[in-house]
Each structure stands twice: as C-alpha cells, then as structure tokens.
Specification:
By secondary structure, this protein is α/β, with parallel strands linked by helices. The protein is built from twelve helices and ten strands.
C-alpha cells in the first residue's frame, strides 16, 4: 500500500466544547470533492492533545465512516505514554484506519533505545502500518536519521515518517539511510516541493484544510514531472502557508475555516481566538486568494 500525495491534517470542529460531527463530516466530504489524497484525524492540527480518549476515538470513527474507503486514513494514535499509544492504535485499527501516526514521546524525551522500544511495544501489540511523527518544535525531541533507519529496519510496521523539522538536510539523510521504499511525508507546508525533490512522497498538511485542491496539485504536478506547474502552485500557496502560522496552529486554520463558513470559530483551551490585528492580516490574505 503506497501512501503518497497530499494528506490533510484535519482540524476538529467544535460546538459548545463538543465535537461538531455535522461540520466534521461536511469538511471531510469537501476535502474529497476537492481531490485530496488522504486525511489524518487526531493530529496536532486536530487538537488531539486536549481531546479525551473517548473523543479521540469518536473523531477517528467519524472520519473512517465518512471516507468509506475512498482515500486513505492515517489516524493519529500517538502518546508519550506507551500503553496509551497502544490503546489508541488498537482502536484505530478496529475502526478501519489504513495506518497510524505516532508522535515521538514528548516531555519525557526518551533516548534512541527508548524510542525503538516504544515503537516495538506498540507494534507487538497492534500490527498496523504506522508513520513516525518527528516534530521537535512540539516535542523537544528530534529523531535522527540513523535512529529512523533502525526503527524502519527492526519494525516491519514502521513504513514512513512525517518529517516536520523543516530541515532538508535531515530529510535527505533520512531518504539516504532508509532508501526509496520508506515513505517520507512532509509535516511542514513550506518545504513540500523541495522535500519531494530529494525523494519525499508527499505531505501531511495544515494549509490543505483550506486549499486541498491546490496542495494536491503541487504533489500531482511533481509526480507528473511538471516542475513549472508544481512551482506555480507552491508560490501561489506561500502567503497562505505563512498566514496559517501567524499564531500557533491550529488557531489560524480554524479561524480561516470559520471565515469560509465551514465551521464555528471555536477552540479548546489553552487554544484561544486570534489577536484582532492578526485576524485582520489573515482575512486580507484569504480575501486576496478569493477564499472569502
């Protein structure tokens, strides 16, 4: 099973501090209509850190049900507690997800030996393909290429990585160490095109929540060897990518979707609404791109 192209790291719509199932299903359906290659429920963008385990499982179940096998679903199932990660992964498999996304354990900062043991423990309990999620800006832990290669060699379920360092040298070394069959997905919207050029397979994207067709087009154009077209879409999206990080993700992207009429502008603490001056900057960018 090949995972490639543009995957959206879906936001989790909220209404009165509960999951807004109607808005969530509508968002997923719109993503599919726009040509997205896959979806990722319960990642960072989905506010997974503040979902209860019951809510986390519900979000995965809704997503899998709405997709109905039309694209691949990579379910966020990671934790800094190995037993919790096992529980979430077991549910993701039972719900019908195609793969799991496992963030590296945050805060407790395991050694390379601990990382390997963590992922081995999950795979020994639940055999489902999984992606390592390397985002040191969130976890204070950077999985180095040789450790990634060791995980890949020793754990058959480890099929790829979401690389969110933004470091193309490191991405290149991951591809070098692991070979072309290891699936490298960008976790950084700014570097999708250059990542593809060093052997990457696609992206798990924030900005594709609002422009799924455009991110799909970058990946598709590159796959078809149309570099000029890929660059055109890359630069067309650049202002939107910057706008999605005017404040901490997912605040700007959820605000954008609210402006586009796709959901309420609601967050779960400690996420709060944007500062008025930043929201105005966001509105100007969205307007300039014809999204509102």
């Amino acid at each position: 099973m090949q995972f490639s192209g543009a995957f959206t790291a879906l936001v989790t719509p909220l209404k009165n501090n509960s999951i807004d199932e109607e808005a969530y299903r509508a968002l997923i359906e719109w993503q599919l209509e726009q040509g997205i290659d896959g979806v990722v429920p319960c990642g960072t963008t989905g506010e997974s850190a503040t979902l209860s385990h019951e809510e986390h499982k519900k979000v995965i179940a809704i997503c899998v049900d709405q997709v109905k096998g039309r694209v691949q679903v990579i379910a966020g199932a990671g934790s800094n507690c190995t037993s919790e990660a096992i529980d979430l992964t077991r549910y993701a498999k039972e719900a019908g997800a195609d793969a799991a996304l496992h963030i590296t354990p945050y805060y407790n900062k395991p050694t390379p030996e601990g990382l390997v043991a963590h992922f081995k423990a999950i795979a020994s309990e639940v055999s489902i393909p999984f992606f390592i999620y390397n985002v040191p800006g969130r976890t204070a832990l950077n999985v180095m290429p040789k450790t990634v290669a060791r995980i890949y060699r020793e754990i058959p379920e480890a099929i790829g990585i979401k690389e969110a360092t933004g470091d193309l040298k490191q991405v290149s070394e991951v591809v070098e160490e692991c070979g072309p069959d290891f699936i490298v997905l960008s976790g950084d919207d700014f570097t999708v095109l250059p990542l593809l050029s060093v052997g990457g397979h696609g992206v798990i994207s924030v900005v594709s929540n609002i422009v799924p067709g455009m991110m799909h087009s970058v990946c598709r154009a590159y796959a078809e060897n149309d570099l000029e077209k890929a660059k055109m879409f890359h630069f067309e999206m650049a202002p939107l990518c910057r706008a999605m990080f005017l404040e901490t993700n997912p605040i700007p992207v959820k605000t954008s979707l609210a402006m586009m009429g796709k959901m309420n502008k609601e967050f779960r603490l400690p996420m709060v609404p944007m500062l008025p001056e930043n929201e105005e900057k966001l509105r100007e960018v969205l307007s300039s791109k014809g999204l509102i």
